[in-house]
Each structure stands twice: as C-alpha cells, then as structure tokens.
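Long-time lurker. I teach an intro course on protein structure, and each term I like to show students one example going from raw sequence to a predicted 3D structure in token notation. This year I'd like something fresh instead of my usual example. Would anyone be willing to generate the tokens for the chain below so I can use it in lecture? Attribution to the forum is fine with me.
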Amino acid sequence: MTLAIGTALQNGTYVIDALGREDAIGPGYLATHVPSGQWVLVRVLGSRHPEVIPSAERRSAFYDYLEAVGKLGHPLLSVRLRGFEEDGVCYQILPLPLGVPFTDLPSGQVPLSPRRSLTVIQPLADALQQLRPLGWRGLQLTPDQLWMNAAALRFVGFDLPATSAYEHSVSESKLVQGLTHLLYFLLTGQRAEHTQAPLAVDVRHRLPGLPISLETALHLGSQATVGTISEWLALLPPLEALPSEAPGSLAAHLSVSGQGAGVTTVVVPGQTTQVATSKGPWVRTQAFPLAYGSTSPSATVMPKLATWALVGTGLIAGVSGLTLGLQSRLQPSSLSGPALLNPDQSFPPLPDWRGGQGDWSAPASRGAFSLTTVIRPPNQPHP
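-- Reply from a regular --
Happy to contribute to a lecture. Here you go:
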C-alpha cells in the first residue's frame, strides 16, 4: 500500500509528509509528530507477507515487545520503537535522526576494512544475545536495517512476525547465518545472496592474507552449522590479527562503548569525537530526506542564497522574454526600415479630388451604368 501525502494517522497525531525509502521490512514515510512538531519515520509492518499477518492478540504482544526492546539499555537498541495499527494496517514509529543505512553509504566508505567490519559485527552479535529473553521473532538481519550516523550505530530490523513464525522457535543458527551474511557485506560491499561462490572463497580472492579463522567463520556461519552466537564469535580473529588500515582511508574506526553508555562512538584519526544530537544542519541523503540533523519541520529546506538565486533567474528570464516579444511585434525582421513608412506599399493610390475629371468607379462597372443612361422598357424601339 502507499500512503498519500497529508494522510493523518492516530486521529491526527502523525501526518505523512513524504515517501522516504523501501527496505527489507517495507515502505517508510517521513511524517510529522504533531504534538511535538518533530519528524519521525513511519514504517508499514508486515507488508512483505500481508497474507500471513498474525492475530490481534499476537500483534498487541509484538507492540509490547517493541517497547521492551528500547528499555534493554544496549547502545545498538537504544531507539525507542513503538507500534500501532489503524484500518487493518500495522505501523511502526522510529524517532529521527537515525543516520544512514549501510546500503546507502557512499562508495568511498564501503566496503569496510576487516578490522572495522568486526567492530560493527561484534556489538550487533552482543545485542542479539541480549534479546534472547524477549525472543528473536521477526528480526531482519539485513544491511539496510543497520544505520550509522556521525556517532552511533543503530539496529532497527524488527518486523511483524508472520503466522508461521509462531509455530516453532527461531533457530540461533539462523541468526548466526544472518550475522555471517552481514559480515560478508561489510567486507565486500556485496550482498551474500548475490554471490555464486562460497563466501570464504570469495573473500579470500578479494582480500588475500586474512587470518584462516575469519575464513572458517564465514564458511561455517554461511552454512548455519554453528549452533550459537557465542561459538561463532569465538571463531573470529582478534582485532590485532587483522590488517591495519591504509593511511588516508575513508573508513573511520568504530569503537563501541560499554553496556549502558547509550551511544556507539565513531573515532576518526586526527579529529575529536562528537556525539550525535537532534540539533544541527539539515542533511539530505539517498537514504532519507532527513539523515541526521534538525528534526523540526520548520527548519529551512533550502539555503536562502539558493532561493534568491532562483527568484532572480526567473525575473531575468521573464523580462528578457517580454523584451524579445515586443521587439518582434513592433519591427518584423523581414522588412527594412524605410519600407515600413512607404504608404504606396500598403494602400492604393489616392484619387484626384480637384475636379470631376476621370472615372473612379470600379473597373468592372465602368460604362455599364451612368446618370445619362436611359432605362427603357423591354421591346421599346429607340428614337
């Protein structure tokens, strides 16, 4: 389904402003939270499997699950999610700013270095382990569900589980497989499902010289033969064993703070660390009209200088068009100047008004009728 701009949800609490992006869960919309005046991201849940939407009782339990996830205190799960439904459609609200999903990062920033890839995967694996008491149903471990802004990582891959997901528990080995595919994407910039060769072989070809333990983790994890997340993490090499980044690399060093700190910091060599806040300039990206920056709808959409430049260009174009139109109307280019003022070219010669000499009647009727002509009845002889 597609929501029209201006659609109001929850009795006018949220108003749709624009279509944002499509991801593994479904369409996302930029909307205004009317009471606070802040922008939020509204996602349609269950849009990939609308025919197997769970019952109302299970949907209500899922909305409570979203509330509980935000209270765990893990840095990657710190986004306060909430869900509701209206007219038979299930929605999810994500507060902005979130950043940019890894699938929309510029080409100069992906793929990541092996060391940085592990600094992303390890905290995500730790977050999944903390979700164990709440359950793993409906998780989407895809690159477009992992977002990064100037100072933090966020995981938002929580979709409404299909009806079949309640028939059996989620296998932890499937989560390991998802982590493996995500690690492959970070290392190569390519989706695992689009790769024909085994993941370990492809990574060895692209990045020769990596530790054997990393290739082993990719090989076993992709086949879902590793039983637990802890076992898979034990296969990964230490960060010190991975190649150091080349000088001048665009990739920043991510270092995840301890549990409960609330943020995941990004440390760039030669720069000071900054923490993302809801204030700042408005930044547009391919991921979403508001990547990170101001979250107020009253923020300036376009710089004033660009606005005045557009207005000035329009005025100049209008005056130029009017001038050319008047010039072509008053002086056609096909006639010379003197010919315009010569009446002989536009009007017939004037008659001689000095006397009655000359016959100025129409040439066709000259001699056909005059005042001296006598009209006689028919069959009357002339005198």
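Some talking points for your students: Residues 304-330 form the longest helix (27 residues). The longest strand covers residues 14-22.
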